[in-house]
Amino acid sequence: MIIHMETVSSTMDIARSLIPQNPEDGTAVYADYQEKGRGRVEGRRWVCPKGESLLATFLFKTGSIAFPLPAFPLYAGYVTAQCLKKLYGIECQVKWPNDVLVNGAKIAGIYCECIDSYISCGIGINLMQTEFGSSYRRNATSVKMVTGLMPDREELLKKMIENFILNLKNFSWIKDFQNILYKINGKITVLEGLADSGTAVTGILSGIGQYGQMLVRLPDGTVKEIFTGELQVE
Question: The whole model's pTM is what?
Fold first, then answer.
């Protein structure tokens, strides 16, 4: 089921209201404009002009997912990257834990919540913007800026649903995911804990664990698992 609305407070709010109806996996709500779109970190909002992004929330039953639920935001990043490549030829990387980048610039963001027996996965993908205002915290880009194309939101939405469903029942995607992980095998600094006030950890990003945790090889050779935090971007 796909629900389209012109203006909403947040697509996640609308999706949440559907859960008592026991919606099928891949049910999606998308809108032209969100008044209160939110991100993973409290106080950060997803802001964009009307109709220029895919602003959508997808619902999946937790019982349908064959891999650890904490890895789902990375799975959502993987699906987003695969769809942007298949439809538009864009090579993306996923920045742990929830951003999709093109040449270091953000093209999509992801925010997931567990609600009752569902995962609610909100995704915002920049499609038709040609510039970004000063409210953006970092470099951003869009499908149009990268390719010159005018993407069709519903075509992309349907491709996203199709690809989400494809690997819900297995964990084989994690191997391919390592190939598009931003800064893999490179030196990184990550703020462990709260995104804006965590403890800085520096080392080599060696991969991702089964629960979606970042594996960082420290200077002494040990590997530290980081479950929450934010990867710093140079």
Answer: 0.90
